[in-house]
Amino acid sequence: MYIAKAYLPPPSGGDKGEGLCFLFFLMKPIVSIIMGSTSDMPVMEKAMNFLNEQQIPFEVNALSAHRTPGAVEQFARTAEGRGIRVIIAAAGMAAALPGVIAASTTLPVIGVPIKGMLDGLDAMLSIIQMPPGIPVATVGVNGAMNAAILAMEMLALQDADVAQRLKAYKAGLGKKIEKANKDLAEVKYEYKTN
């Protein structure tokens, strides 16, 4: 994120000190979410919602390793220069997208297999089975939320503010389980022992 400053001069005839100064916070994405098609949107919205809640600037695009291979390669080669630090790539079926992106960049790529023909097993195996030197971190089938959390963990290594938000998020997970156990303690059955 960076700040731009704009100065609006005073109305004609006004005192020079009466102008307005505006600060604009311009966001540059540091995470890129790429989908093979917009049909992946319902799954990937979990990643978008998480990144948004955690105040991590991101971009979203649809690119196809098979239908737009040149655009995928161009994206991957220019992502780092645009300030992207982590790429989340979702794909189903043949699921070549994460691997094709990883082949053209040194940025970390997180693959999200999308459930399809074989309950996502086909996509998961395509993403996991990368050749040596072209790794793709892979989360579970439809695991967009975990992909976003993993991206946040990567970013937290070099950003203290992101690290602090990540710690707060993870602490909240523990509190949810504690609350669930308190709620379960109130559930009564004749043969329940706790």
Care to describe what's here?
The protein has helices spanning 41-53, 69-78, 97-103, 121-128, 144-156, 160-185; strands at 2-8, 20-26, 31-35, 58-62, 86-92, 109-114, 137-138. Helix 1 packs parallel to helix 5 (144-156) and helix 2 crosses helix 3. The model has no long low-confidence stretch (mean pLDDT 90). The N and C termini lie far apart (50 Å). The chain is 40% helix and 20% strand. It is flat. Strands 4-3-5-6-7 form a 5-stranded parallel β-sheet, sandwiched between helices. Strand 3, helix 1 and strand 4 (58-62) form a beta-alpha-beta unit. The protein is built from 6 helices and 7 strands; from the N terminus they run E-E-E-H-E-H-E-H-E-H-E-H-H. It is an alpha/beta fold.
What's the total count of β strands? 7
- Major sheet description: 5 strands, parallel
Rg from Cα: 22 Å
Helix content: 25-40%
Q: Report, as a whole number of angstroms, the end-to-end distance.
A: 50 Å
Number of helices: 6
Mean pLDDT comes to 90
Q: What does the overall shape look like?
A: flat
Unreliable spans = none
Strand fraction: 15-25%
Order of helices and strands: EEEHEHEHEHEHH
Task: Label the structural class.
Answer: alpha/beta
Q: Strands of the largest sheet, in order across it? A: 4-3-5-6-7
